[in-house]
């Protein structure tokens, strides 16, 4: 279902000025598919296969207004002949013009329901989920950001045997923690995985611990720029100069924050000399914007 639509991804080495001795290679998961891009491809793959195996032809999932997961799920659903429902955080959005992410999802046939932040918080409550499933008996329910056991199984496939051999440190952006959990599970013993959180707070440490018992990882929120989908003038400036210098597009919610953090740590000599760093470009370019204040 998924593998035949995957396009091959390339590795792009970043230009770094001496005296830096670490190397940074970007794994361009953004190239894997124009709509189901980056990590979302791996997160959705086994979920859709499981839905199909159960004979379900409808999916239901959750997301915020800037959720790449919502856009990717809507597209995948249409591609594979599923109906889709998206429960979106923010009742106030109901009466506003849809932003690019939500307009894209709707265009791909997703039915959007806007709920209050209080209602949205119930999305992980077992009783609520049971009621929801009763209400939507024919829908396969995928959690927020697509993170569940099947998503992590898919994300383990991001790291190849060569990736395990050729690099010492793996970096990725973190939202719900599914992608980094898969990378940690797939990482070799000599490797460390470093996550850059797009959200404020350290609850993600706890979330990721539920998915892996390994200890070779860290998550920092030092570069979250105030929180999810928030931006600072410094971030937007970094993003634009990085894109021009490296000829590599980023977006402001995840990958620009990660890259700004990584470049800062390199400047601070945070890593041992000659560390071979592999950075995941997790895609999300459909939501790229250089305008201030997304939230
Ligand atoms: C969703 C997303 C992430 C975060 O992935 P999680 O598995 O939720 O941590 C990172 N980068 C991009 C571009 C994304 O769209």
List the helices and strands and how they pair.
Blueprint: E1 11-13, E2 23-27, H1 39-53, E3 58-63, H2 68-79, E4 83-89, H3 100-107, E5 110-115, H4 117-121, H5 126-135, E6 139-142, H6 149-155, H7 161-166, E7 169-174, H8 178-186, E8 192-197, H9 203-209, E9 217-220, H10 233-246, H11 255-267, E10 276-280
Parallel strand pairs: 2-10, 3-4, 3-6, 4-5, 7-8, 7-10, 8-9
Antiparallel strand pairs: 1-2
Bound molecules: pyridoxal-5'-phosphate.
Key features of this structure:
single chain; 11 helices; Rossmann fold; 295 residues; binds pyridoxal-5'-phosphate; six-stranded mixed sheet; alpha/beta; 10 strands; 2 domains
Written overview of the protein:
The chain has about 300 residues and is of the alpha/beta class. The protein has two domains: about 170 residues, 3-Layer(aba) Sandwich (Rossmann fold), CATH 3.40.50.1100; about 110 residues, Rossmann fold, CATH 3.40.50. Helix content is about 35%, strand content about 20%. The strands form two sheets. Strands 1-2-10-7-8-9 form a six-stranded mixed beta sheet. A four-stranded parallel beta sheet has the order 5-4-3-6. Helix 6 crosses helix 8. The longest helix has 15 residues. The two termini are about 35 Å apart. The relative contact order is 0.16. The model has no long low-confidence stretch (mean pLDDT about 95). The site of pyridoxal-5'-phosphate has 19 residues, from helix 2, strand 7 and helix 8.
